[in-house]
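Reviewers asked in the last cycle whether our approach scales beyond single polypeptides. To address this, we selected a multi-component target totalling 693 residues and predicted its structure end to end. The input consisted of the following lines:
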Amino acid sequence: MEKFTRITAVAAPLLRINIDTDAIIPSREMKTVGKTGLAEGLFANWRYKAPGSREENPDFTLNREPYRHARILLAGANFGCGSSREHAVWALHEWGIRAIVAPSFGAIFAGNCVRNGILPVVLDHALVEDLARQVEVDAATRPLTVDLVECAVTAPDGRRHAFAIDAANREMLLEGLDGIALTLKRDAGILAFQANDRLRRPWIYL
Amino acid sequence: MAYARRSIARPTSSCYIDAVARTLIDKLWDEHLVADLGGGSSLLYIDRIFLHERTGSVALKELTAAGRRVRNPEQVFCTMDHIVDTFPGRGDATRVPGGTEFITQTRAAARAAGITLFDIGSDDQGIVHVVSPEQGIALPGVSLVCPDSHTCTLGGLGALAWGIGSTEAEHALATKTLVVHKPRSMRIRFDGRLAPGVTAKDMILALIGAHTAAGGVGYAIEFAGEAVRSLPVEARLTLCNMGVEFGAWTVIIAADETTFEYVRGRPYAPRGEAWDKAIAHWRTLRSDDGALFDKDLTLDCASLAPQVTWGTSPQHETGIDSVVPDPALQADANRRQSMERALEYMGLQPGTRLQGLPIQGAFIGSCTNSRLSDLRAAAAILEGRKVASGVRAICVPGSTQVKRAAEHEGIDRVFREAGFEWRESGCSMCFYAGGESFGFEERVVSSTNRNFENRQGPRTRTHLASPATVAASAIAGHLADVRPLMR
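The resulting structure, written as structure tokens, was:
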């Protein structure tokens, strides 16, 4: 997995609440069994003028300069709610997004982010709105810095805002770790649990 | 992170009893704990894994590509539900673009991995969260995951079950474990008894309406109270199904005698001596008296009317006897904007009575409301009546077994004679994947779980409701209150 340490980049505000994974990538855009080729379907219902078409809707934030080059999203509460489809994260990553700052996230979506090199940052809703206001003055020259080493977001006005993140998720992102390989190091413990559990809860074991 | 952080503010020495009293979630957490990873993270043992062809396919494919294998294939199950067509005589061909590839690749990968597949044409095929309880794969106390957000449905049986992504599914398949940050705890008490015509679907919609679609974010939630206890198991599955629509990590209802009766004798349920051991253990799986929760909520159900959504989030909902709300009266700016956008999408004006809104579609199905009791409730309304002209009405049973049982009871005949299409089982029109949909800007009343923009089709306008409300509305040709139609 690609590592995440620190980025300074254009941030695009998408502040509406409850943006669901159906909106991030509609089901009809998931055309093959795989993790790639999904960027084109990102936000398809909002990004294009009609379903199935690829004619851009000029009003949609990510179709406008300089947001076309955004690597950070500023989002509303409960971003990524709804369907568990990891395609939403794969599409965001392929399009170029590496960090999302929001007051809260859908739980499955946030888990999918950290397993694919995207950092979900939780900041207070008033703060996210303030960051959006600052960025919107001139997004190209007023980038945001998201730093996972320091666990802080630096606003265009120079202020730093600390954020909290689960220690295991932080390490996974910083090191670009493969979660399965890490867990398999504990194989002996898993087998011991299983042997003991088989005696305790025999009905589980088919 | 805020969505997973656990705030611990519990009495210890001053209140010894409370300090040792554990919640149901605590007990299941401890029971499945392989290792405490520190910092609030746990390595949890996963008893059972369920996959489907939409997201399970990629998990199996990536696992194989990485040179890894499924650790305990006898505990892994797979069904075809998301992509498969629901027309009579269906096969691998599907109207979903590229869909056949998902079906054939899933089948090949499932066979290669040696996992149990409930394939197209099998008597046991159906929607994953309908099949799982039906087969006794989901049981009280099991930890069960599936790369599908509605896995929380199985909390209705007292299972610790939650939705994950495909990469996490790979992790669970390869290691039989998952790394999980323990969520905060919440208990929601549903008080009172439901009035006739009011269902578990109305309870969960009312909860989300009252506390928003993000009300449960960061929490593992136990549903309790008189209204929950008096629900049969299938209704509990409906209640828990939309826990994810409330934003919860997962939801659960402690198993009781009603649950045990439901589980007894199912194909994968324990038998004989194993059953006795299991049931003795299951009786301990309840929150201890005095167990403390990080948050407590209550919802009065006695005065609840049938609910219906008017917008594009499950939190956009109200009683069927109410009107489309006015965003101008919403103090919170974010919620106001969300309401305004929703009204524009839905083609509605504030103050419009919901009853009387003309509909062009009616859908009964999905992992929320497609079980036999749901179909019976709808059929009781449809019997001797006809779907209004101009309404396309479709019923998709949740599993092949549900379909057969319904046909055995003659329920299919009631649906057909009323003017409903009667389909093979699957997720069907709960979501639009490029195949079937209701039409552009058509208004649909649906027993499903998501009224998101474009969910059921391009610009399709979805109103979520119970199966009984869907049936009543299909007959009326507009959103309707089921209560006057009840016999």
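The radius of gyration of chain A is 19 Å. We regard this as preliminary and will revisit it once experimental data from Aim 1 are available.
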